[in-house]
Each structure stands twice: as structure tokens, then as C-alpha cells.
């Protein structure tokens, strides 16, 4: 066989470099057979060969080991082929090449923590048996000795790990030994720090200060990675010193630990010692007494801090003090599931599984993201916290032991536990092998094919002689990620269903109390009620019940992601019961993940949509198709209404159908809005078109009813005003209108006026009066004609000529302002054209007098003082409050009145279009316009969100945290950002008010 073929067969990536290194004089005397036998064991033969040549160059005695039989040379080739970084370490420290001596075992034993501690302490000339060891070395010599001893221990562990018959079986022991080795390094660093502190403080004082180092996270759980920050908390005590002096010395000791571990020295630093999990985080003191810790936890700690303490373990320093700390905080950990804020903390834990992942890294993440290590850890820790309150067998720190305990306690099915454990071990081995190569902290799957080929070999045990293709590695990894996601749903929710459905099963089944605890941890405020709903959905042997048992594990998780899981589950039950065994419904949930997730999202976040879906459950079918959620244009709605009017001549039946069409289109728009398919402008237009179709239908029904008693004597026009005229309405908007009529030929003005009044009265009645049977969950369209001439004191409807005479003789400036948003809504097209022609000269005057400007300002000030509800906070009222809708709209309308007579660009009923035109024309600068636009959009969104979330109209920014959270999400904020949303609105509206006062009042 040619050399090139042998290199390929051995797994080399760079054949040219491989041939060059094989011909190196350092390898003279080593038979190629022995060399290739050794290199074939290396995960990266390229790296192993290069490191070997460099090591032999400095240490020719290594040739004998390189030429030995595979049983003897295995540690050498496996380590050099798996860790370039440890090869570099041995080049720097050749005195440790004896690490390769001795036989390896396929079932290696874990080094004892005491042995590791003693080795590291002796490396800095400290006595392991001393009460508080003090190093005989300080400064750079101590740091170098400590780090060298640590890396020697790391190399010994890596050899055991790489030669273990099953890397996955050995993984928990490897994680434990890595944590013990880190703890030993911290112990040695503390001994060095004590020696160095004696040069700064009185030696007796230093000796009097006890310091216990509490390991957190993976170090505390004894499941550390090859390279990772070591999270710690420092606890101090002193018999003779006051707390302030003890704290000063304790801070120096803690700082000295970090210095010994990671400061610059000939032997590079090991890792970061991270104390940010301490009380108050970076803002808090580095060290505290035990009493100070407990005082903080009793008064100030948040739920996540108790959950972090689940992993707390003494790793170095005063053991007795550390054990007292552990004993004191242990009850706090297991009581945390009953604390206020626990659910929010759990939801934050869930978000941390996927958040803060750069888009370019998402597909490469082994730790974060869906199906990653954190997904496993979240599931296990949450189950421990929920059920560990009453079951002490679950109170273990490391993940693999916790999975076993959960399975033994019946909280996870045996098969699921075994699969979850296997997936976790596989992901951890991947992570270990990736980090070991360069001892670099990373959790990303490498992209280069050579690196993937190395990794595919590295994760296998020594008895696997093949070299899998990188595609096989990626396929196995992706399969594991999918398995973790599926197992997460099954492990967390399946036992709930087994309990609720009272199934006879060998799988996990919870007690009612445990099931309720699990639901409560997810955010269900009424877990007993939730269990009743689950029971109703899954009980029995019907196909529907079986499918619900299959689907609910996933659906319950999606519902739990919402603001109100209880309401969402109840609505889901009602929708499911209403649709019964409808084949398309069950098929939609089973076959369309997007539709099922959308359904859960709207049910758990929107009372309005839930109420509407409960009474028109057939609309669930839209969720599977974006096309079905597109707004139906006005022309299509009007065609449908005309068709129904032709088949239902009686007013009651006709109006029922018209109002049902409007209810349907509001629901369609709301679902499309919640799914991100419509922007804010499209929502306003869609809702306005639905109202327009309903009003036009009501006008026709009213005219038909009047026509039964004689001919129609007049044409009636409904003109939309306010936000309805601007087509900027939300889900809770009324219809502001004015009515115009014109007598038909042959009829007197008196006759026409009388009939017009009758028609107008019927329109309002037809749109608002209760029907039998009632239209459930309808948002009745309230018609408001208060903007007519003379307001509430004026005639409800006027003729076109009467309007002309009124506007010529008596019109007030506020009426001209109101007409800025007038738009024909329903009725005669000819009359509409004539009316718009009439009012254009009123609303777009050539010039606005100073007196009119003063009057507009006076009315605005009066509106602010009189119309704001008593007790309402002006800063939180999004319509009439500071920087709210009213401020933006009045300013824009003032600019229109002042300039639209000469600038046709301002002649629009849309607030934002008029604002953009004013900016373009230079009447308001770009920054001010942008600020007003933002404030107006956010305030409009909040008004709509209030209706969507609660089903009730409100102009106030919610004070309830749950409602505020729901409104924030509807406004596009991520979960948990209600506080930031509130601050953003208050800041934005405050700045918008400043712009308003400057431009409107001239301040």
C-alpha cells in the first residue's frame, strides 16, 4: 500500500504535511507499522504526529514509548490526538511526560478528591493536613507550580477519559473529577493567597479569618467541563476581628485566589473564577459572613437565586463553615417553588434556553437552543424544585443522579429517563471533546469538515475502530437534539396526562398533589382546575381522547408560554368540545404545528380572541393557512352582505347576518395581527372596512324597512369622522359619524328631513339593539354622532343645503377641525362627492386667524382638564394623557388647518400621512416627527392590546403586572419585559409631550 493510501486509511487530513512529518529524523528507528498502529488510535492523527515529533525532538527518550505495542503506547497517541493544548503543555513541561507511563483501564477509577487536594497543595509547598493551609511559595513561582500541577492532573484525567471503553459511561466521573480538580486548584490558590496576605496584614489576623469557597453551577454539582468558568460564593468568619476588618482581609484572600488562578505567568491561566452569583451580584461585596448571607436571602433575594443554590457545595477553604452554609440555605432552595415570583423565574429559565444566541451560531449550539444541554438541565432542575419540596430523594446536585432519582421516584417514566440520560451524556461528551482539543471554552459544533471528522472519532470509545464520516456525526447530533425536545415534552407533561386520564400504565404517573405542583410551576394559578380540564379532554378510549393525550404534552407547554395558561386551557377545552369529533380539527392539530402553536398562543394571551373562537370555533380552520387570515376587502364583504340581503328581506335576520360578518372579520383580523401577518396600518384599515360594510348594510336595511311604507324621499349619507374617518381604529373603537341627506326630486324638504331622521334612528338601532338569539361575544358597534353641527344640541341629520348654510353662518373652528377627518362611509356616491366639495373650503382654509389658533388651544386645555377621568394618572392615559394620542392628533390637525389650504399634501384624513407631509414640507423637523410617530403608534397599539388581552376597552396603560405583561407582548416586547415596556412608554410619551408643547403652544 502506498504511503498516501496509508495516511488516508489512518484518517489524516493533510497528506502533504503528514508525509513530511513522517520523514522527520526524530522518528528514525520507529517502525512504520508501530507508528501507524498508534496513530490509528488518535482522533486527529495529524495533530498526534506533529506533537509527537516536537516532543521527541526535545525528549528523545519518548521514542521508545512511541515504538511500543499499542497497549503500551495507547495513552500517548490518544492524548496527543485529542488535545493539541495538552501536547503544548507537555512541550513546556517535559518533566511530566511520565504521565504516559502505566497501564490504562477500559473502566477507569475516579481519583479521590482528597488525593487531588493534597497534590495541588503540595505543589505550592502547603501542608494538606493543616487547619488552614498556607503556601510556602508566593507570586509567579506559586502560580506556575499550581497551574502546572493542575494541568498534570488534567492530562491524567484526559487519558482515563479517552481510553475508557464507554466515554458516555465515564462522563459523570469525568465531570466529578474535573470539579474536584478545580476545587483542589482553588484550595491551593487560597493557600497561596494566605501566604501573600501575610505580607499585607498581620499574620495572626489572616490566620483568624476563615474563608469557605462555595462552588456553584457545574462545579458545585460536580459535573464540570474541561474548560469553564468556576462559579463561586465566598463566606467568611472570624473569632476575634470585627466584621469590617474580617471583610477586608477576606476580600484580599478571595482576590488572591483569582490572581493565583488566572493572572499572567509563564504557565498560562486556568480559567476565570466568577463570583457574580453572590448576593447583589457584581454590586455586592465579594465576601460576606454567614449571617450576612442569610439576612440577604431572607429579605432581598429573588427566586432565581434560590434555584442557583440548588448546586451549592463547599469546594475549598473552611469545611465546617461551608457545611453550615449549605445546611442553612438548603431549606431555602426547596421552599423556593412556593415563593412569589417562582413561576416568573421558571419562565425566565425557559427563555434562557434559547435567548442571546447569535443567529450565526444558533444551528451550531450544543449547550443552548432547542434540544441542547440547557434544555435537559432546565427540565431536570424544574422537576427537582417542584417535587423535591416533599421528596428528599430528589435533592441531588448533578444532572445524571437527578434523572435517576426522578425515575426511581416515579416522576419520569423509566424508558424516558434512560433516553434522556443517554442524550445528556452524549451531548456532554461532544462538549468535552470539542473543548479538550484546544482547552478553549466553546459550546459550538465545528464547521470545518476536518474538525468534524476528528470529533466523530473522538466521541467513540477505544473499541470502535472505524472513522465515521462527518455526516454521520451531524446526523447523530441532530437526532439527539430532536430526541431531547420530544423527551422534554413527554417527561414534563405525560405523567400529568397519565394521572388525569386514570390510565393503567407502567409509565410515570403522579399523585394528584405532585401533578398540581408541576402545573403550578408552569404558571397555572388554578392547578386543580387545570387537572379537571386535562381529565375532561383525555378521559376515555375514543379516538379524540387518544389524540388529545398525544397532543397535550406539547400544547400544555405552548399554553404555559402565554400570559394566562389557565384561561388558555379552559378556552382550548371549550373549543375542542364545540368542535367535537370534527375530522379537520383533530387533523389540523396533529398535522400542522404552526396552527396548533398559533391556537395556544391566542388562547393563552387574548381574552377577546378566546371568546370569539369559543362561539365561532369553525374559525380555528384559518390558523393553518396565512391565506385564510388575509383581511377580506370591503368589496367582497359588501357582495356577501348584498347576497344575504336578497335572501333575508326581514330586518332582524338581515342584521343578524351583517353583524355576524363583522364579528367574523374582527376575529380574522385579530388572529392575523397576533400571528404577525398584519402591520398596525393594515389592522386599522381592516377593522375600518368591516365597520364600513356593517354600516352600509344597516343603511340598506333601514331604507328597505322605510320603503315598505312608501317611496324613499331622500338619499342619506353616513360620513365617518375621527379615527374611523382616518381608518386608524382599534379593536375597541366606536364609529364617530355625521349624517347628511338630500331630498329626491318631487319631495319637499320637510318630508325628506322627517324620513332621513327615521332612517338615521334605525341605523343606530339596527347596529346596537340586542337580537334573539343573541350574537355571542359580539363587540357591538356604537355609533356616535356628537361631532355634528352644534354637537348634542343639533339635529341628528341635516340636508346638504342646511350644512352649507350652517357652515357659512355659524361654523366654529372646532367643527372645521373635526371635518379634517371626514370620509364618506355609506350612502349615495353623488351626495358624498358634493358634501366633500362643500367641506373642503371649511377644513382647508386659506388662512387661520390668530383668534382661531387661540380657540383651538383653549379647547385643548379644556379637554385635558375636564375629560380626563377622575383619578386617572395623566402619564398612563394613552388617549388624553401627556404625550398620548390626543396630543399628537391635535398638533397634526393644527398644522393642517394652518397650511393645508396652500399645501394639498396635507389634505388627508390619516394622522400619520399628515405628519409625514408636514415633515416633508418643513413644518416640523425630522426628529420631532419621528418621536410623535413612535408615541402615536405605541399608544394606539396599547389601546388595541387592552381590548385584545382583557376583552374590555381601556385607555389606560395597565397597572396590573399580568395585564401589563400581556399588553407588552402584544406590542412586540419579549416575555418578561413588561417593566422595560412601561418605562419605554412613559419616557416616549414624556418626550412627545415636550414636542407637543413646543409646537402647539409655542412654548
Structure description:
With 1003 residues, the protein is mostly helical. Helices cover 61% and strands 5% of the residues. The protein contains 43 helices and ten strands. Strands 1, 2, 3, 4 and 5 form a five-stranded mixed β-sheet that branches. Strands 6, 7, 8, 9 and 10 form a five-stranded mixed β-sheet that branches. Helix 13 links the parallel strand 2 (230-238) and strand 3 (273-274). The protein is elongated, with a radius of gyration of 38 Å.
Which structural class fits the helix and strand makeup? Answer: mainly alpha
**Overall average pLDDT:** 93
Annotation field: number of helices:
43
Gyration radius, rounded: 38 Å
Low-confidence stretches: none
The percent range for helix content is 55-70%
- Largest beta sheet, briefly? 5 strands, mixed
Q: Which percent range describes the beta-strand content?
A: 5-15%
Task: Please report the distance between the alpha carbons of the first and last residues.
Answer: 92 Å
DSSP, total strands: 10
Shape: elongated
